[in-house]
Write a structure and sequence with these properties.
With about 240 residues, the chain is of the alpha+beta class. The protein is built from ten helices and nine strands.
Amino acid sequence: AANLMHSPFPPPIPAEMLLLAYRSGIFPMADRRDDPEVFWVEPKERAIIPLDRFRASKSLRKLISKDVFRVSVDEAFDEVIKACAQPREDHPESWISERIIASYRQLHRAGHAHSVECWAMEDGTEKLVGGLYGVSFDQVFCGESMFSHSSNASKVALGWLVSLMNAAGYRLLDCQFMTDHLASMGAAEMPQKEYLKLVENARGEADLTLSAVHQRFALGDPHNPDYSSPGKLIAQSLTHTS
């Protein structure tokens, strides 16, 4: 226990507490990377992407159907959250502190935080070039953050996420705060009270896990040459939403 005393960070937020917060429509953020404290945020206005109205542009559907990236689920959660926490040109500080990273890694191990990864070959090795992570409970997925080191990689990850959620029987994709980027993909804004009603209506287990659905997609459809690859199946499913 001695070394715990000297740890610069308080212990991770317990998984049960995090899930209770999400069910109540609140989530933690930090002021900076090395901040030991977290503060709890309850947005007045909430951004969600309606799963039946995700707008995948023609160019995005094309990119997905070409399988430019290999897309995986929960293959590199730790790497994704670390990449999301890196400083960015427009954003030198991150709200994803070391304590928040530790908390969500714990939540991931408990089966309630997931990542979608995009991989590409660079110099003969496969590199992580984009992705997103978020929290899932009941039939809800709360997108936390995404990153892209290759153009459109995070959009591809989001397209896959919507497709997987639809196929798995999820009802609600929460994006927390509205941005132009999300608006262009069909996100809608609503008061927190309405959002909490949607959370209430999305009680109960989803039919399948995201990774179970991903395994189905990952094989493509061997009986149909038009959908012979995972990306072709995903692009096809997104044609119905936009």
